[in-house]
C-alpha cells in the first residue's frame, strides 16, 4: 500500500466520519453524550487480522479417540450462553469514536463547509508587541535614525540645485538678479534672492553678458541633476532637523478571551407534544456542542415558556411540558433581563428559540420583534418544529422571516422531521458565518 493509497483511505475515513456525524445528529441517541464529550457510533470496517478457527482445536496431531468413533455434539464455547440455557448477561461491544466539542466543531465545519471564526471581546491581558509605533519623544536608544536620515535626504534632494548652471544664467545679457530669481521660481529651483544677489556680485564685469539669450545657454551648457551630483561628489552633509526625530515604541497587543453566552428558548405549551420536543432537542444539542467547541468560555442559559417564562436547567429544558397557552415575548423579556449579566462589549451572544410557531394574537409583531431588535446578539434564530405541517395559526416563523428578510443576524429554520435537522443547523450557522 503506497502513499496515495493511504491518502485515499484517509479521505474515505474522513468522509465516512462526516456522514456518521450527520446521521448521528439526525437519528442517533444524543443522550449517550454529555456537554464535554460527544460519542458517535462507528460504521467503519475494521482492518483484517488473523484469528484461530475455534472449531479446529486439535491441530494436525492425533486427538483423543480411535478412527471410526462417532463424532459427539459440539462442545459449548465461552460466550455461547449460560449453563442453564439463558441468554448471556454481558452486553455486546459497541464501537464509538469520542470527540470533545472542539473536534465536533471542526468536523461540523467540514461537513457543512462553514468558516465561523469567533472574535474575542473581553480583554484579559495587555502585552508589548513589536516596536512599530512612533512618537515624537523617547529615550535615545529608541530613536529611529533610519527614518530621520530618510527625511533629511528627501529635504536635501528637494533643496539642492545646480549652482553652476544658475551662475551661468546670471551671465545672460540684460538679465539681472531679479529676472534670474523670477526664472528660478518658475523652474521650481529652491534658490533664495540673497544667494542670487551675492553670486551676481562675484561675477567679473567682463563675463556679464557672455550669453546673448537663455536659449543659447541652454543649448550649450548641460544641467546636472541633483542625484548625479550626489553620486559624483558624495554626501557631505544631510540636513537633519529636530522635527524629523521619531522614537520607536512597542505596539500594545490586547489578548482577548473568546466568551459566549447562548440563550436557548423553548415553547413548553400544551401544543408542544413529544415529537416536537424531540426535534427541538435534536437541533439545539449540536448547536450547544458546536459553540462550546468554538469559544474559550461558553455559558448556557435555558428558558422555558408558555404564556409566562421561567429559567430552567438543561435537563428540564428538553423534557418539561405544561398545558398553558403561548406568549413568546415573555421569554425574550426574561432573556433581556438575564443577559444584563453578560455585557455585549465583553460577551458574544446567541439567542436561539424553538417552538411550533403558534403564538398569542399580535404578540410576534408587538412583542417579539421589538425585543429581538433591542437585544444585541451575534445571531438570533428561530426553529419551527411542525411534524405534521403548518397549523392554521402557526405563523410566528413566517412573520419573523418576512420582517427580518434583509437582516444578516437573524435566521429562521423549519424542521418537520429528523431529515431536516442538519439543514436547519446549516441555515443557522451559515447566517452567522456570513455576517
Described by strand count, sense and barrel closure, the largest sheet is: 6 strands, mixed
Shape: elongated
The CATH homologous superfamily of the domain at 257-434 corresponds to: von Willebrand factor, type A domain
* Broad CATH class of the domain at 257-434: Alpha Beta
Q: Give the ordered list of helices and strands.
A: HEEHEEHHHHHHEEEHEEHHEHEHEH
* SS field, number of helical segments: 14
CATH third-tier fold name of the domain at 257-434: Rossmann fold
Termini separation (Å)? Answer: 45 Å
Beta strand count = 12
Radius of gyration, taken over Cα atoms and rounded to an integer in Å? 41 Å
Low-pLDDT stretches: 79-93
- Portion of residues in helices? 25-40%
**Largest sheet strand order:** 9-8-7-10-11-12
State the main characteristics.
alpha/beta, Rossmann fold, two-stranded antiparallel sheet
Question: What is this structure, in a nutshell?
Answer:
The chain is of the alpha/beta class. The chain has helices at residues 3-27, 101-112, 145-159, 163-169, 177-186, 193-201, 214-220, 226-233, 274-294, 314-319, 329-338, 363-374, 396-403, 421-434; strands at residues 38-41, 96-99, 122-128, 133-135, 247-249, 252-257, 259-267, 297-305, 309-312, 348-355, 379-385, 410-415.
Walk me through the structure.
- This protein is α/β, with parallel strands linked by helices and 435 residues long.
- Among the domains are: 140-249, no CATH class; 257-434, von Willebrand factor, type A domain (Rossmann fold).
- The chain contains 14 helices and twelve strands.
- The chain has helices at residues 3-27, 101-112, 145-159, 163-169, 177-186, 193-201, 214-220, 226-233, 274-294, 314-319, 329-338, 363-374, 396-403, 421-434, and strands at residues 38-41, 96-99, 122-128, 133-135, 247-249, 252-257, 259-267, 297-305, 309-312, 348-355, 379-385, 410-415.
- The chain has a six-stranded mixed β-sheet, sandwiched between helices. Strands 1-2 form a two-stranded antiparallel sheet.
- It is elongated.
- It starts with a helix and ends with a helix.
Amino acid at each position: 500500500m503506497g502513499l496515495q493509497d493511504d491518502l485515499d483511505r484517509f479521505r474515505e475515513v474522513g468522509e465516512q466520519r462526516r456522514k456518521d456525524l450527520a446521521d448521528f445528529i439526525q437519528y442517533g441517541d444524543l443522550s449517550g453524550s454529555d456537554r464535554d464529550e460527544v460519542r458517535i457510533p462507528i460504521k467503519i470496517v475494521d482492518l483484517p487480522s488473523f484469528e484461530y478457527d475455534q472449531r479446529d482445536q486439535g491441530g494436525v496431531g492425533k486427538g483423543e479417540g480411535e478412527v471410526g468413533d462417532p463424532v459427539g455434539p459440539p462442545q459449548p464455547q465461552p460466550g455461547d450462553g449460560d449453563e442453564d440455557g439463558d441468554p448471556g448477561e454481558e452486553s455486546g461491544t459497541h464501537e464509538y469514536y469520542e470527540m470533545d466539542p472542539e473536534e465536533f466543531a471542526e468536523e461540523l465545519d467540514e461537513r457543512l463547509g462553514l468558516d465561523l471564526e469567533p472574535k474575542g471581546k473581553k480583554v484579559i491581558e495587555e502585552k508589548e508587541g513589536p516596536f512599530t509605533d512612533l512618537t515624537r519623544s523617547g529615550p535615545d536608544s529608541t530613536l529611529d535614525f533610519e527614518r530621520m536620515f530618510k527625511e533629511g535626504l528627501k529635504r536635501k534632494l528637494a533643496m539642492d540645485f545646480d549652482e553652476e548652471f544658475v551662475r551661468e544664467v546670471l551671465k545672460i545679457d540684460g538679465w539681472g538678479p531679479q529676472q534670474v530669481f523670477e526664472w528660478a521660481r518658475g523652474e521650481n529651483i529652491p534658490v533664495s534672492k540673497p544667494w542670487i544677489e551675492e553670486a551676481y556680485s562675484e561675477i567679473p564685469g567682463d563675463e556679464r553678458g557672455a550669453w546673448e539669450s537663455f536659449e543659447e545657454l541652454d543649448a550649450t551648457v548641460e544641467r546636472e541633476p541633483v542625484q548625479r551630483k550626489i553620486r559624483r561628489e558624495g554626501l557631505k552633509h544631510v540636513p537633519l532637523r529636530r522635527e524629523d526625530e521619531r522614537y520607536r515604541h512597542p505596539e500594545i497587543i490586547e489578548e482577548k478571551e473568546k466568551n459566549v453566552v447562548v440563550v436557548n428558548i423553548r415553547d413548553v405549551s400544551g401544543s408542544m407534544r413529544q415529537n416536537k420536543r424531540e426535534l427541538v432537542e435534536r437541533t439545539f444539542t449540536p448547536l450547544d456542542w458546536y459553540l462550546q467547541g468554538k469559544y474559550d468560555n461558553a455559558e448556557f442559559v435555558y428558558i422555558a415558556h408558555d404564556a409566562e417564562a421561567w429559567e430552567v436547567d438543561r435537563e428540564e429544558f428538553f423534557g418539561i411540558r405544561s398545558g398553558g397557552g403561548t406568549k413568546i415575548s415573555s421569554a425574550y423579556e426574561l432573556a433581556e433581563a438575564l443577559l444584563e449579566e453578560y455585557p455585549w462589549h465583553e460577551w458574544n451572544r446567541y439567542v436561539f428559540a424553538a417552538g411550533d410557531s403558534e403564538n398569542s394574537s399580535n404578540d410576534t409583531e408587538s412583542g417579539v420583534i421589538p425585543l429581538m431588535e433591542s437585544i444585541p446578539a451575534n445571531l438570533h434564530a428561530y426553529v419551527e418544529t411542525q411534524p405534521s405541517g403548518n397549523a392554521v395559526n402557526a405563523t410566528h416563523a413566517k412573520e419573523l422571516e418576512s420582517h427580518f428578510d434583509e437582516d444578516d443576524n437573524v435566521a429562521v429554520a423549519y424542521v418537520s422531521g429528523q431529515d431536516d435537522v442538519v439543514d436547519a443547523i446549516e441555515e443557522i450557522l451559515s447566517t452567522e458565518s456570513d455576517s
